[in-house]
Every structure is written in C-alpha cells, then in structure tokens.
Fold these 4 entries.
Entry 1:
Amino acid sequence: MMLASPIPMALLAGREGIMLYNDGYIAIAGGRHPDCFAASVLSAWPEVAEFNADIIGHVFSGESLSYEDQNFTFHRNGTAENVWLDLDYSPILDDDGSVVAVLALVVETTKRVVAEQELVQSREQLSLALGSSAVVGTWDWHVREDLVYSDEKFARLYGVDPQIAIHGTPIADFVRTIHPDDLQSVSTAMQSAMETGGRFSMEYRLVQDGGGIKWVLAEGQPLIDQNGQCTRFPGVSVDITAQKEAVEAHARSEIGFRTLADAMPQMVWSTLPDGFHDYYNARWYEFTGVPAGSTDGEGWNGMFHEEDQDRAWDAWRHSLQTGDAYQIEYRLRHHTGVYRWVLGRALPIRDEKGRITRWYGTCTDIHDTKMALAEREIVAHELSHRIKNIFSVLSGIISLSARSAPESRNFADLLRNRIEAMGRAHDFVRPHSRTSRPVDVETSIFGLSQRLLEPYGLEETDNRIVFAGDDTIIGDSSATPLALLLHELATNSAKYGALSHAAGRLTIAGHHDAENYVLEWKESGNPVCVRQPEQEGFGSRLMKISVEGQLGGQFQRQWDEDGVRVRVSVPVASILRSSKLAARS
C-alpha cells in the first residue's frame, strides 16, 4: 500500500528507524536520495536527528503523532533551506501487538506556507503604502451616480484636478488617460469584476500630459447589493513605473549577457545555487551537437568521457558543498562523436550576506594544446634519452682507453664517475611531466647535492660530508642553476678545498628564513691556508649568474683559514618554480 500510494510515505523500521520509502518521498529526500534508502533516519537526516529520535520513542510507546506546518532547516540539496511539512506518525504492529516500525506520512507544505507569508507581508506593505507612500492613490467609484471620489495622489496620477476629484467627477475623466492599447483590457476586467463581484487587479499604462508613460497597478473590490448590482467600486492605484523600468533594465541586461555569452569562443553555462544547470550558450550546443535543454540538470555529466565522469562529479560536488572555485580538465564529447579535452572552470556569485545565488562557468577547448604538449613531452624525453646515451658512450670510451693504459686507470675511473654523476644530475635538469618523472630521482637540494658529490667519494667516506638543517623540494626550472652552482662548488672543493684532503670536512646546511631558503656550504679541516684568489674566475662568475641572475637570490663567499664558506639565499618561490611543461602536464 505504501509503495503504490502517491502520498509521500516512509517506513522507519526498528529503533534505529531504517528508512524504506515510496516514489513520492523522493522529492522530500532531494539530493539525499538514494543514499538515505535503507539507512537510519537518524544518520540520514542529522539536522533533525533529535526530533526523529523523539518521534520513534513516542510511537514505539504506542502513540500516534501529527504535526501541521512543522518547520525544519534541511540541507538535502547541499545548502540550508527552510521547509514546512505536515507529518503523521503511526505505529506498525507485529502479530503479537508489539511495535516494530513507524509509518510516516510526509506532505511538504513549503509553497503554501511561503505564499501565505508573502501574502501577509504584501498586505502589510500595502497598508503601510496607503498611509505613507507618495505613489499610492485611492478611489471610490459610486457606480449609479457615475462619480469617482479620489485623493490628491490618485487624481494627479490620472491627470485630474484634485479639487474636482475630491468632490466627485465622472469616471470618463480618469479613463481618458489610460493608454489606448490597454483601454479595452482594463474595461473588460473591470466589467467582469462588477458582474461577478470578484477582485479587480491589473497593471496598465497611463499617458501623461507631456507624453510620458507611467505604469500603475490598480486593485479594487466591487460592492454588490442584494439584487446583484454593483453599487460602489473602491480601490487603489500604485505607481509601479520604477519597478517596471527595473524589470525592463534587467531584461535588457539579460539579453546583453546572453548576446555576449553567445559571442564568446568558450562554452558558457550557469546553474542554480544547488548546482542545477539551467543555461548554456550557443557554443555549448555547437560543440556538443545535443538538442537544447537536453543537458539541463545533471544531464551534463553524461557528456564526459566515462573515465572522467566520477572525477568531474566529485569535483563539482565539492565546489557546491564548500563554495570553492571549480576547475578541472576532462574529455567532453564533440558533436563528431570523438572526445576532446576541455578546461572547465566555475565561480559562485554571492549576495550581500555571502549566500551563493548562482554559479557561472566556462568550458575551454584545450585539446590541440594538450596534444601539442604531449608531443613536446615525447620529443623532450627522446632528447634526454639521447643525451644520457652520450654520457654512456663517453664512459665506455674511457673504460676501453684505460685498458690499454693501466697507469691512467685511477684517472679514468675518476673521470668516468664524474660523467656518470653528470648523467644522473641530468634527471634534475630537464623538465618532467608527472608521467615522465623518474620515480627514483631525488627532487631536493640535499638529493641533488648527494648525486653531484658521489664522484668525490661520498659513499666510501660518509663522515666527511654532513647534511644538516632543512632540506627543500626544487622545481625543474630551478634545477639547472642549482646543479651548476653545486657542481662548481664540488669541483673547486675536490681541486683545492676540503675534498682534496683526507682530513677535509664539508657541511651542507639549509634553513628557511621568512620567504627565502638559505643554503650554507662550509668547508673545514684544510691543512693548507685558503686564500681569496686575486682574480675572479669563470666558475665564480657562473655561480653568481646562476644564483643572482636566474634565481633572483644572493650569493656570498668568504675564505676562512681552514676552508671556504658560501652562503646562498634564494626566494622559495624561485626554488619551487616549475616549467610550463610540468605545470600544464
């Protein structure tokens, strides 16, 4: 009986109120359907859990409960909304007479309650307007005598001398100002009200003496005698010109928006606050080729590639729940039947209280750019592969050459190790996408330093080189200047500094200083006193260019008695900077 009934019904089984409901209840559940089916009413409707728990307790005690126009605040569609319901609760008994469930009849009365509230408010406003507004006038037409008595406001609105109107004048004096295009409909409506006793309410235009137009809302209630004849016809007229002009301005603005949206190369769409899609511009229909209106509501999700649908829906649902901007790349079905990559973006529009009133979004076709970037990635990957092959060939040549000259074997091993280290450092230098980035490559300052220091015996004598403080992730665009800096420091240390002596020590320390990252390279234990060179060499200029020119940082170097000290300060934003290829892929 419940499932067949058009009245919204729900069965709350057991003390937990497990919900079983009919099709009529789906409108009540809103966006919580179908997740709330077979779920506890206490968890499915957390905002009214206390109310429902109390209901279940009373009904399981044998009571039947009824509520009329019960007010709740629901979040069934992602945003708070005031809802009014007529509710009836009855116990469902088992064969032994014990209560096993609650039968709930749920009828939403929100529209009626809101309409009644608006009517009361409208009447209050009208009453206030009659007493204080400068745009409201009253009339009283004595039909048998054909005399209309009015106040000054009404008389001036209709172009009648107020001194004459206050003592009564024929209705023809007022009718003459009604716009010719509206006169017949006004006369018909007034005649119908006088014959039936029904209320008269109509909007029409008045032609002013200077040729201007005013809009009025006229409302009246004819008085009928016992013979069915209209004896009096009192009422009011409200000047609604400003409201009409505002409506027309809004309409022109709407037309302007739609014209602008249709002229844009992007697909433009908008939704209601709950995410219901109700507008698409011409580009959308040109791109997709679907009939107008067929993607309203949630129909848009069916246009995505099946592998992107869940991801796009989850992102959109997150934006609706949080108000965050919506941005995602997905594949959209083109009218040719193929799927093309598009960039979807949307932002909410809020009222003065911060409540979302609409969402406006765009879809931009990025398929060609996406494909070009993919081709660029392939070329970059192939180029990197060839460069690393060159490193491998050089290492092979050095090994072969060393076999015929055993006396140069140590030098050959050192040179081969350096070439192999540069090959590994190359993984830091070239841009990577998420798919091409090697999983075993360290993308940090300390990681890069370790790779570049391996040829100088880091693995064999770990205690000579110490890393301290904070490490930091580096972007692929900053990897090249950082690799050049560290390689030059390591080379100089191996030639003249701490790494050229067994007693030498090297400390590499990092720390964050406000918006900068500071890296300190400190060598010590050098038995030979270190002096500042008389002339700045190419390596020194290269380090300054890498730090100050390419990274926008500061490079400082000083010579202590037992080793050189280098301090590099670089903005964190520069260190994390990534190339366009990595950012877009």
Entry 2:
Amino acid sequence: MKKIIYFIVAVVMFTGCNNFLDQKPLTLKTSANFPQTADDAKQMMAGIYTTMNNAQRFADQSYFLVCQIASDDALGGGGMNDVKAQAYENFQYSDPEMLNHAWTEGYTGIYRANYAIENLGNIGTDVISESLNNQYKGEALFLRAWFYYQLTTLFGDVPLTTKTEPENLPAATSEQLYGQMASDLKTAIEIMPNVSYDQTEDGRVTRWAAEALMARVYLFYTGFYQKDALPLADGGSVTKQNVVDWLGDCISNSGHHLVSDFHELWPYTNSATIGDYKYIQDYMDSTGKSLTYASDNGARNPETMFAEKFSNFSDWGVKRGYSNQYELYFALRGLQPLQNTFPFAGGWGQGNSVPKSLVDEWEADEPNDPRLWASVMNIEKEVVPLGYKRGQWDFVMESNYWGKKYNGIAAKASDGSIKNDYSVVMYGNNDNNQLSHTDDLIFIRYADVLLMMSELTEDAQYMNEVRARADLPPVSYSLQNIQKERRHEFAFEGLRWNDMRRWGPAYAKAALESQVGVPIYNFGEPATQKALSPKGIVNATTKQKAFSRYRNRR
C-alpha cells in the first residue's frame, strides 16, 4: 500500500545552566543536537505534517468539520451527546473545550514549522543538498501559512509568531496575519523546485500547491476584507496579476490535470468495491464509460495537489489520527449491518446530512449534472431498499440525502463477507469499523486552480474545462456561474464555508437561511430544521467572525 507515514518528532527545549542540564543528552532530541543528519531533517519535516493527523484525531473539534457544518452544505446531526456538531450548525456555544483542539494543534504546527525554518539553515550542504534544503524550507513555510489560514478563518485575528522563543502576544491584525501568509507562500514558490508534480514525493508540499494556496488566500482576503491586494509582511503587496501569473505557471508546468470522470475522484470506485455498487454500475451502463479510482492500488491521483495522508497503523491511542476519522464521523449513524448501507460503512452521523435545499437548487440549476448523485446519496433509492433503518440510536438532523465523498467504503471479501473498508481487502488492513479508513483527505484539487483562474481572469475557458469533465455544456463567465460551479464541484470538501463569506454577507446570509425549514428526521420521526439565531447569522457572515469569541477561552 502506497501510504506516507508521518511520525511525531519530539523536540525538547532546554534552558538554564544547572549542571544536570548541561550534560549531553543520550536519547533525547534537543535544540542543541537536532537536526544533524539527513534522517533528522526528514523526521523534523514529518513532525510538521503529523500535526494535521493529530488535529483530526478529535474530528468533532477540527477545522474541516466546522467548515463542513457551518456552511449550507450540511447539517450538524449526530446524537444527543454530539453537542459540538449541533453547536457549529447554529453558531452556538457548547462547552469550554469546543474548539480547544483546533487552536492547540494549529499552534503546535506553527511551532514545528518555526523550528524547522530556524534550524534548516544550520544543516550543511554536505548533509543535505541545497535544493533539498530549499524544498524543506518551502514545505515549512507553506505549512505555517496553512495553519495560520485555518486559524484566522476560524477565529479571526489571532497571535502571530514566527519564532520558537516563548512570547505572550496579543492578537495580530488581519493585515499582519495575511501579510505573513503571503510572504511565506511567495518565498515557498520562489525556492521550491520547478518540476512536474509526479517527480516529487507523494504527500509532500510542492511549488504548485503553494501557488494554489496563494490564490485561495488572496481570494478570501480581498473578498472578505474588501481589499484590492494582499499585503506582504515586509512591505509591498501581492496583486491580482501576480496571482494570475502563478496560477498560469501551475496550469502550464505542474503536470497536474483533471481525472477523466468526476466519479473517479472518490473511493467508492475502487476496484474491490465498484463491481458491487449498483449506482456506479448503472452509471457506467448508461454512459458506456469504464471507471477506475484515481488512487486505486496506491496510484497517484493527478488531480490531488495537497492532501492529508493516512496509514494502517492507527489505534485508539496517539495514533488514532493515522486513520481518516472524517470517514467515520461523516458516515450514517448507527453502525448497522454493512449489508444495510453497502457500499458505505457506518459511523457517527455528524456533519454529512445534506439539506434538501441543496438538492433542489442543484437540480434546478443543472438537472443533468452527474456530480449531484456522484456527491449525494439518495437514501430512499440507495440504502433503504437494502434494509437501512432511520433514526438509529439517537440520530437527529437526519435527512433523505447524505454526502458520499468522505464516507468509509466497504468491500466484499472472496468469501462473500463484507469488510468495513476496502483497504482490508485490497491492502490487508485490520477490519475495524472505526479505524480502518485510510483514504486521502484532499485539501486542494487541480479543479480548484482552474476555477480560481476563471474567477480571477473572468475567463470562462477554465470553468468550462471543469464542466466538460462533467459532460456539461459551456457557459459564459459571470460571478453567479462561478459561484454555482464551485458549489457543485466542491460540495462537502470544506471550501464552501469560506467561499460563502468571501462573496459577502448578503450571499452568506441567504445561503444559511436556505436550510431553515428543510425536512429532517429526529429519532426517526419527521421534523423540520429550526431557524438559526439571527445573532449567530450576523456573527457568521461579517468581520466579527463566526467563532472569534472562542479564541479568548484558550
């Protein structure tokens, strides 16, 4: 199985002059002796990436799950004890720790990135080459910007630190925070190798990912804060033309491209499952297509530009984050027999219940768009006939529709038994209904590069390339068309929340209010979704930031 394993690097800082602290440590890695070797440098970098796995170890306190639920893509759901998910849905307070983990892991990642940036310059070219040192530094700069992007879009203005020395800092301004992100990404773009993505190590940040993240940061900052350019930390700015040039570089030189069919992005098309999944078999019969999962048997997905990687080494201790916990949290609640939900595995039922308003709008806008049912499960058609029962355990905010993209995918073994994840059949993973899921969590896809380029240049050709992959006719450029295209292409991928907000309070308010009154089931009984708090909507859609008040509890 072609999986990248990231191990935690323990970096212990010693201060003071007592004799016992002056002794040479024999087993611990410290700032005095680490990194020294090429392996040290690689471990140091892996420690930064591991922070992302640690962050989703408690998925109900994670940035990605908040973005999913806070948008109009999905409802909070879960059961009686899943108060965090339901609080995110309504922009309410649930408990003192509701976002503590996201805050802590964000700054842990920043500390590790700062440590790497400070210490890479101390490694000689006789240990690692200058090009590899630049690659590592570019990765660390990208990841620092990534962690700050998550923190600022979740909490608003937060403390800004670019060094490991302990400091008691006030919140920085948005200009300072985004200026640092822009400077980090600009440097990363300039120093990272200009080589095709398939010549780089899978799972590592590339120049192309940095160019894409720069565009995402630029669009959010200029949209949400109504600015003309993105500031740089040491003066100057990143202009729209700069971003367009970088995206053009990515399109021309990265080697990334769209996969041939949208369905091939998602693990339900894996070779161990696809032959038994009726929806896919019907789709292939009706179109004459033959599908292959883009990541099948460890293949490298050409559309994936930046993703979180997982492995089969997870357990219920500190390694829980090595499994994709979103595929557990987003799965249908109740852990019913797998034959009742096949090919989808069961789980906690949080943050993946699709409001009927999304389906209705999508069908009205693009009735022939195959991405709708590639992304959304129609429960009545797909799993109720298999024996799926509503209202399992204490399921609330359950709708007739469910997201497909990040849901554990089961497979049948040679003896006919159904395993909790296809990785059990394909890779020999342990069969565990909560820890077996290892699919990548994709943060940046090449389709996003094309749609951001279309939005920045107001040129429909890039948007129409994405539409052509879905066998949809070309359209002219308009902001409304790009808004629809982004929603349909990236539903349930964590992008909608910030897209809504950067397009303005009126757009975000209308999107959130579209969920009010949609039909749901609570404990299996028909109900309707209640209205959101007017104050919550205001906080969620303006510069007050939806969750800024919780930063003061850290």
Entry 3:
Amino acid sequence: MAIKANTITLGDLFGMNPENDNFLQAHRMFISSADAWGALIKDLILALGIERAKRFLLRYGYQCGRHEALMLKEMFNWENIREWIMGGVTMHGLSGRTTSVPVNVHIDVENQEFEAEGYWNNSYEAQQYLQHFPTHSEPVCYFLEGYASGYCSTSLGKKVVFKEVECIGKGDPHCHFIGKTLDLWGDEISPELVDYAREDIGDELDQAHKRIEKQSEILKRGNLLSNQLTQIVLQEKGLDSIAQTLGRSLKCGIVISNKDFEPLSQYGDVFEYSLKRIIEKKENLDPSDQKKIIEMIHHRTTIQLNTLDKQGFFHYPLITPIIVRNHVYGYISIIKNSKEMDELESSFIERAANICALHILNEKTAIDTELKMKGELLDEVLLQPKLDSNITKKISFLGYNLNKPHYVFIFRLQNPSFDFQKDELVHDEKEVIMNVLRKYSANAGENILISNSFGQVQTLISEDLLKTNNWSEKELGTSILKEVKKEFPSSQLIIGISNICLNINGVHEGYKQAKKALEIGQINNENQHVFQFSAIGPISILLDARNPQELEAYADHILGAIYQYDIQKSAELLKTLYFYLNNECNLHKTARFLNLSIGGMRYRLANLKERFNIDMMNSTTRREVQMALDIYTAFGKLSTLLFNQEVAGIEYQDLR
C-alpha cells in the first residue's frame, strides 16, 4: 500500500520487521538527548571556532539527511517521489529536532525543480546554542540546514541547498529557511554552502587537530621566547640582546628603531633596511601600504608592507610599535623575504615589543629616579642660603664642581590655565627644555644639574659651557628658546638669568636674582622672552624689599600722568627728563643732545612744572623722578615707547 509523508508515525518506524533485530541497530541509528547535543556544539565551537564548527555541523547534517532519505526509501512504498521528499519534513518532527512548517513549496520531479520556504519552530539546535553562548551575528541552525540539503538532494537526484535567513540564535523571532536547487539560487548562495558536502567530515577534524598542534607549538615557542626575553630584561642586557634572541628564534633579520624611526639595534641580514627612509618616501609606496603606515603611526597597529620593491628593497617587513605608558617609544621590524604573514611571527613580534617596552620603562625609571635625585639636590642648593657639608659632599660625589662660576637659569611657561602636575603638553614642553640643556652640556663636555619643580625648569649653566660655545648668557637663552619653538610653535616660554655666581655659596642669591628678572620681565615686556638680572639696573637693589607691583605703582604715581600725556601728544617729556638728569641737569648740553633750542628746552621744563608739578630745581623732586625713571627702565617702558632707535640702541643701553 502506498504511503504519504504526513501519515508516518513512530509506530510505523519501530514496528517494521520486528524479527530483524532491534530497529535502531538494524538501521544504524540511535536516540540522543538535546542537552548532550548542546554540549557537543559547545565543545566544537570552543575547540574549532564558530566558522569551522559550522562547516563540521553542515557536513554532518548533510550525511544524516542523505542516510535517512535512503533508509526511508527502502522502508516505505511511497506514493510518489514528492511524498518521499516530504518525508524529511515528517522526520524532523518525529526525531524531536524541530517542527518544520513549509509555507511555500514547489516540487517538479520530472524537471528536477525544487523551491521551498518555511519555518523551523522550536529548533533544538538554536535553543541549545543560546544555552551556552550569546546571540550570534548569523543563523546557527547548521545541522538543520545540512540535513534538509542532504535529504532533498538525495531524494530529488539534484543538488539542493537550504539556507537559514532568520534565526532565534541571532535574536530573530523565528527560524526561517529557504531551500532551492543551485540553478535557482544563482549567485545568491555562498560557495561554502555549495561545497560543504564534498569533503569528508574527518578532514575537518584532521585540520582542527593540526591547527591545535600548531597553536600548541606556537604557545610553547612563545613561552620559551618570552622567558628568554624576560631574562634579558632582568639581567639588564639591553636591546641588542633582545634583537639577537628574536632574530635567532624567527630566523629573520630584526631592526629596533626609536620613535624617530632611527635604528637602535639590529640583527641578521637586514638588506640596508631603513624604516626612516621608508617613512620619508612613503609616497613611493602603493596606496594600501601608505594607509598601513598611517594606521601604524596614528593607531599603533602591527602592519606588513608589501610594495617596498619600488624603493629598491626586496623584502616585506612586519612592523609593530613599542608603547610605554601610552606613548610610542620606537618600533620593531622583522625583515621577511615573503609576503606571507606567519601567525608565529605576528605573535612573537608583539611579545617582543612588550619586552622592549618593559626594558625601556626600566631604563626610563632608572634615569628618571637619578634625575629626580639630582633635581632635588639642585633644589636644596638653590633654596638654602647656607649649605651644610653633606650637600656639598653629595655634589662632589656626583662629579659636579659648583665652586666655579655659574649662572642660574629659570625656564617658566606662561599659561596660568595649565596644571603642571597633570597637563601632558606642559610636561612634554619641559622635557624638550631639559633635553636641549643636556644636549648643550654634553657637547661642551660639561655635567649639568637640572630641576623640574615649582612649575618650572631651573639649572646651573657654567661659564665654561658658555665659553666653549662662544655664547653670552642671553645668546644661550635665545638659542634654547628657538629649539623649544621648533617643537612647540605656540610656546609661551620665558627665561630668567642671574648675575654670575662665583661659587656654590652664591647660587642661592643667583636663584633669587633669576626669579626677580622673571617677575620684572613678565610685567611689561610682552615681546621679550629672555630676561637678565644684570639688565634691570640699579633698581635691582630694591627688589628684595619691595615687590615689582609696588615699585611700578610708585613710579606711576610720579610719572604715570606724563607717560599717558606723551602717548597721546607725542610730547617727549619723559625723554626730556631722562636725558636732562643723565646730563647732570645741564640745560645747554641736554638741548644740544635732543637737538632743541634753549627756549624749547626751557618750555618743556616749564610745562612739566605747570602741568604735572615736576619742579626739576627741587632736589627731592629730582631724586624721586630719577627713581621712577629707573623703575620704568627696568620694566622696559622707556625703551619701547619714548626713544628712537638710535638713542635706544646706544645711549639708553649705555645708561643701563
């Protein structure tokens, strides 16, 4: 009697030929729990990864569908081939895998046409996946896809592929499938779904085993290399040993460069490799490699370049940054002869970069500790009026001779909004200042003490250093200012310089002088950045007793009205007072110097007396005016406002 697919029951399956041994054993079938299947899925995904597990389950499902199609063909007298095909739908439900609900089915057996669409309700595969993993980005009913493809392909006699387009395993409300023959799918179906039936299931397990073995080998070699590199850091052997160990392990050339792409250490045949040259001529590379370089520099990624032959190189370097405290301190390059990026090399270069970072951090910490100690020692020398013997001994032990002439330099960044403890920009700017100072001292063969405290940088510059470079103290300050401006064009750096300190006991006084030079300079010298205490003039005697604001207020009380009148009228009354006193109140001599008539000179003096109550015949008034003019001179008001270039450059400078 012919049978229809929707009439099959479990009784039909288990009641067939009871005399022929157990049904399940006879047909090489078994019953398994859904939870056990879920555990298998979990282990497969964890061991193989989701993509490899997917291919395994697709092929396994295909073989199950194919086997059951052949089994059911032998067991039942089907009404027609269509019913045999639809028997796969019934088997889904009887086996407990899912309830398959076709909503649109077209089967033309004669022309081998097949197209079906429907839903898999209560998919055990999706439910088990969600018990062990979060929702996936793609459908996860791989076995059901494979089973439907295998069953329908076998019963139709033509390749049929099922694809799940919605799935509860990826957060959809239901599992929605579409099945078609290959010619109906066209380009819509991906190649892996077409070819999954062609390989043996064991191949995937074999590949997985090889992959695990390779990962195990990488792990062993990685651990060995990490231990070797760690020992190098612990034994303080340096970057040369790191490059040598990495190069021997990978059998490649190794170049370790600084942050400016200049080589620090190298190992092996590096073919005159120059990372700096590559960066400088990156426009000669293909756009893809140019983009990689930008990614490496700005996003700190590991890259491999593939087009260096245009620059005359025939290798393919693998490059990764060395990062310390979120700053790039250099780069490691593996010099390769192949475009293939080995997983081993990628893993090892990043481990080596971490070890280099640890080495650099240790070196930096040691240097910073030493510099901090020396800076604290300098602070003691600068701040203490009387030095005890312990401080002088420490300085002597460190190889510094402060009993020869020195100048105190103070470098201050003018920006009250900066937090000197936290602001990274200010920290970097101060680092540049200190590095320039160390460079100059090293070139002169001099030791130097530098302190970075109180929101500023301070140092002692020996007279020998200035003589070696044939600089005046102001020229040195200007040179440092220019170097800082190269790195930080918007820098608001100002520099205060003391008078010469003949020995260590004069350094404290020199520190006070440099501070006062800055305080005076900051008030009115907006276009000047280097201030010398020696340029302040006689008024410097008062600086320890009065603060600069008080002195300026005193001068403004006497001369402020004249100052404003000169600005408005161009009357040159302050200029007249200045040179009248400088010429010992000699009317004729001052008139000749200013190119005035005697009458014009008398008119100006009368105007001062009548308009501003400045009687230059009164000795007390003369002393007050002289003091006020000296204060204005120290603050730079006279040079920028009242004197022509010839007078300001010669006479005024001489008077100071």
Entry 4:
Amino acid sequence: MKKIVHIIQDNNLFIKIFLVMVISIIAVSIFITISSIRMSSNLFMETFSITNTKVLTQIKDRFNTFSYSVVSTSIKVDENGTIKRRLQEETSNDIEKSRSYYQIKTQMERIFAEIDPNEANLIIMSLDNEIFNMNYFNWPVKGTELRNHAITKQTEARPNEIIYQFDQSNLTNNIPMVIVSKALTEHSTGKIYGYQYVSIREKDLRSFYEGYTSEGNNVLLINSSGQIISSNFHQKIGEKEPKLLQTAKNIENQGIEYLNVNIFNEDYLMLAEYLPTLDMYIVNLVDKDKVQSNLVDTNEIILISILIVLIAVFIVFLILRKMTVSISKLVNQISDMARYQFTKPLEETGGYEAKKIANSFNYMLNELHDYVEILLRTQEKQRKAELEALQHQINPHFIYNTLASIKFMIKQGKKETAFNTIDAFISLIQNALGDVDELITVEQELGNLKNYVLINHARYGDRIKVNYLVSPDCLHLQLPKLVIQPFIENAFFHAFTKKKHGYIQILMAQRENSLVCEIVDNGDGINEEKIDRKAIGMKGKRQLFSGIGVRNVHERIQLLYGKNYGVNITSELNKGTKVVITLPIIEELENQK
C-alpha cells in the first residue's frame, strides 16, 4: 500500500495532468461534436437560403420574360390593322372567308414566332365565335365553348386588362393550363371586336423551374386567390391553399428571406417571390430534414469524435511523462491566450514533443485567422452581390417612344425642339449607362432630371409643371445616381391619371446632418387607410426609363448607408403624394480622395 502511495506522490503531476487531459478531451469533443452538428446545420441552411433566393430570382426573370412576350404579343395583335379589319368585316361567301382566314393566319404566324416560350399557343376569336388557332393540337378548343366560358366572361368584364387564369376543366380536356386573355377593343369607342388568348400547359410552365427542384426542394406557383397553378407537387395542382398565400405575402411585405412554416402537415423552410406582372407568387418549400440528411451525417460525426477521444487519451498516456515540464510552459502560454491575446503565437521551446504541439497549435491559430478573413471577404462579396442585383437596365420602350417622338417633331418641322430633345436624350443615356454605384453631385443629378422632364414635356406637353427648389449649399454634395428619377417617373405616369394638369415640386436641402430630397405632387394621391407605411411605394413596377422600381431605391440606399436612411412616402386621396428621400452628407472632396 505504501508503495502505491509513494508511486502516486511521485507521479502526482502526471496523474493530475492526465486526468485533466482525459476529462478535457472528452468534454471538448462533446462540445465540438454538438457545435459542429449545429453549426453545420445552420451554415447549410443559411447558404442554402442564399442560393435558393438567387435561384428564385432567376425563375422570376423567366416568368417576367414570358409576361413581357405576352404583353408584346397583345400590343402587336391590337395594333395590327389586317386582323382588326378582317375580324370586323362581314364575309358574304366562302371565298372571302378563306381570304380573311388566310390573311389573319399570316399575320398571326409573324406575331406567334416571337412568343416565348415556343410551347405557348396563340388563339384569336371573332365575335361570331370563329377561332384562329396557331396550335390546334396544343389546345383543340371550340369557339362556342370558349365564348360561353367564365374565362371569356371575365375578359369581357375587364376589357382593358391582360388577365391570367387557370383552368383544368372540359374546356382544356382536363389538362391544367394557364390562359392569358385580352379583349380586342376599338381605341376610340372601347367596343369589343374580338378576343385573344395565349395559353400554356402547366407541364410546359413547369419547365421554367423544374431544373431547380429536387427531393426536398419544391417550387409552387400560386395565384392571387391562393390556387396552386403549377408545382412539382403534381397532386397539389388546382388546390387552394390560403394559408400558403398569406405566408408568401408576409414574407414579401416584411422583406425577410425565409420563414419556418408547417404546410401540408410537414415542416418546411419557405422562401417566396412576388411576380407583379402576373399577380402571382413563386414559393420555394425546402424540407430541411431531407436536404440536411444528404449532407450532414450526425452518426458519422459522433463516431469520429469518439474515435478521436480514444486515440487522444491513448497518446496522452504514452507520452505525457516526457512532457510534463514543457506542457506546464505551454499551459501558461495558453492561459495568456485566454486573456484574448489570440494573435500571440506559442513559443516553440522544450522537448521535441512540446515543440511539435506548439507548432501545430500555431498552425491551427493561423488557419483560424485565415478562415475568419475568408468569412469577412465572403460577407463583403455577398453585400456587393446584393448591390449589383439592383443594377438597372434602360427600358427599351422609353428609347423607342422618345426616338419616335423626335422623328415626329422633325416631320412637323420642329427642328429646334427636336435638337434640344436629342441633346437631353443623349445626356440622359450617358448618365444611365454608367455604373449605378457611381456618386454624382446634386448639380449633375439636377441636370439629369431637367433633361428627363424636357423629354417628357416634348412628348406629352407641359400639362404637368415641374419646379426645382434646391439650396445652393447642396449643389456640391454627392449622392448615388438614379435615386430621385424613379419617383419623378412615378409622378409623371401614375399620379395624374384622373387629374389632367398639376405640378411636381423637387426640393433639396441639408437638414439635421442629412441631405433631404422631397418630391411633392398635387396628383390623384392614395387613400391613407390603404397605405402600408412600411411598404408603400416599395412594390413599384419597373419604371419606363431606368427600370428601377421605388422599392429598389429604398433597399439600395439602406444597403449603402444603413437603416437610418431611405425613402418615406405619404399620400392623401385627391390631394397628392409626398416622397422624402434621406441621404448622408457626402462632400465632393471625400469621393475624390
């Protein structure tokens, strides 16, 4: 017994260190295992949500492309004189009917070639139920059935709108199909002289996103009534899910990336994007358990941790006796690191083993620093990508319409007005084609606004007056490009639909260490009770010139300068709207430096 006690006393340091090491290894391994599983899951879900957000944006772009092609087709059909004339004229014999049919089909073939995607179908129907069908095998519909169906009734009730409707009844041979309809009307009288339909089968619509789906990663397209009109959940097509619709609206309105939800009695991570041109939502449902199980094997991590613990204990037992002195030094140095001296490396002194430990620890410390730097760079790249996602494109319709107006001025002999308009147009295009992140002075932005107003006055007349009240001490200050212009565009084309005349005032001044820009109009205004103060103006459509919606302006300002800056909109019905843009004070010399 005395011999055992003597051995314990002689190896007291070794035993203490060994017990501490064993307990520490086990405790640290458990903690690292739990943390690794949790961090792996969290990191995966964050990365997955960012990736899927970008995927949803790509899917949204495909749907927008389809919507734009539908709008373009509708305009071309509505403006086609041959189709309009042949639909309205009365044919007395078969020869005239054949001639009319041939002429209409010829015009439709030219228009139909530009519809994207090619799987879509174009149908025109006259008031006497005569059908002109570009792809009969795609949708073999009869004129009498289509005329008496709710789709046409809805089109008649809203003749000036392009209406997206879903149907899988006998009309479509029970095939799920999205039908986009528009009444053909006389511009002068508003009288309907025919109907046009663009149809696409659900299985063809599914091709817009099917390549992005997988097991546990599902996509649904929901209309404004909560009906699922397309999904890789085939059994859910046609069903109404108001809860899913409401959740999608909450995600959009609150501006959050994703929500954890319980849908179809399953737990999902849900992302959503609104399609304003279709008045629909794209919903992405991610089954976290299925997706994570393919990437994170919890049992394997635990097994590896246990194996590491056993190996570590065995090695410690074999070599600890030779390392007690050196380890004591290392412990003291590590204790210093516990006082947040993370950048101080360990001294590589003592025996071979102690040097190796110190060297390995220092290598691990360097790797940790490198990893932190990588994380910081990744966050910076993510922020830059978010800013680049707001990069604008010039709307081609603005270019076409402006050039057409200049051509008309020249024909009318208004050469001086045409030259002035061309100069303003060139300056405006040069400014818009630059980097959207570029800073310009208030004076330059004011010049761009005046050029834009000059073009609109040349095209539409000066029924809307624009006044500029800019404090002289603001002219040298800087602000991001195209911050004010989307609101001027919004006022020009949306604020005066009922009122035909009015004014827009632009005021800029320094106020409480901020640059404040106000755009005030006395147009139609919006009912105050219907304004969501957090989201008003943030859902604006793409503008005619810049393509930048007012929501993008607000997000862009906050991404650049923080939550203390941005856009605030107030409005009163029949009295007008006031937009306040708050920006930081940026001196011109700061940017030059």
